[in-house]
Amino acid sequence: MPLLVSYSFKNAFARKLTGTLTVAGITLVVFVFCAVLMLANGLERTLTDTGSDDNVKVVRKSANTEVVSILPRSNADIVKADPAVARDADGTPLLATEVLAMIAMAKKSDSNMVNVNVRGGSAASVTVRPAFKIVQGRMYNPSSSEVIVGTKVAKSYWGAGEGDRLNFGGRDWIIVGIFETGGSSCESKFGSMSINSAPPSTGPPIPR
């Protein structure tokens, strides 16, 4: 055994370049492995905090995300009438029809423009997300040009604080409140769960 240890040390000093490259390669592999584990853990925690066994999201067939999903209002009414949908004490279905879009906003960290989700909903949007609460300002007034933003959006993007004004959808909007949802991914979206009043009873299909 002493001979093997002595030989290993002598070999390491005799082949410094090879030994250094070997150590660097092993270090890089360990770093990548740890980075992948950290990313997986972060995604798992985000999805766990956001998801709920009581909630289900309905999108059109073959749609991988809400952004590419569009449901006609007639289909939304069919889902609402399904007996599997939970109801409140008055028998009203606990279902929120929402419109999802994207706008470009500048990040505070590097001022780069990135896409941020904007979600239009109704009072039911709050009901189906029990962790929702206003932490600054107030709730928007229905049928007005008022919006609310998640806490992470307010901290991460320029012009996303209470009292700021934004222009999208062909009109100006004023931010009247900041909300949080128990640390879920909803907080990292602009108006993520509810930005305005309920969608009109007539009009284009509901993107979901």
Architecture overview:
The chain has 208 residues and is of the alpha+beta class. It folds into 2 domains: 49 residues; 138 residues, no CATH class. It is 33% helix and 21% strand. A hairpin with a 6-residue loop joins strand 2 and strand 3. It is elongated and about 85 Å long. The C terminus is likely disordered.
Descriptive terms for the model:
single chain; 208 residues; alpha+beta; 2 domains; four-stranded mixed sheet; two-stranded antiparallel sheet; 5 helices; 8 strands; 21% strand
Q: Summary?
A:
With 208 residues, this protein is an alpha+beta fold. The chain has helices at residues 2-14, 16-50, 73-81, 123-127, 151-156; strands spanning 70-71, 99-106, 113-120, 133-137, 146-150, 165-168, 171-180, 206-207.
- Helix percentage: 25-40%
SSE ordering = HHEHEEHEEHEEE
Number of helices: 5
Major pleated sheet: 4 strands, mixed
User: What are the low-pLDDT stretches, counting only 5+ consecutive residues below 50?
Assistant: 192-208
- How many strand units? 8
- The proportion of residues in beta strands is 15-25%
Distance between the termini: 68 Å
The overall number of domains is 2
Oligomer: single chain
Summing up helix and strand content along with how strands pair, one would put the structural category as alpha+beta
Q: Determine the mean pLDDT.
A: 79
Bulk shape: elongated
Backbone CA Rg: 25 Å
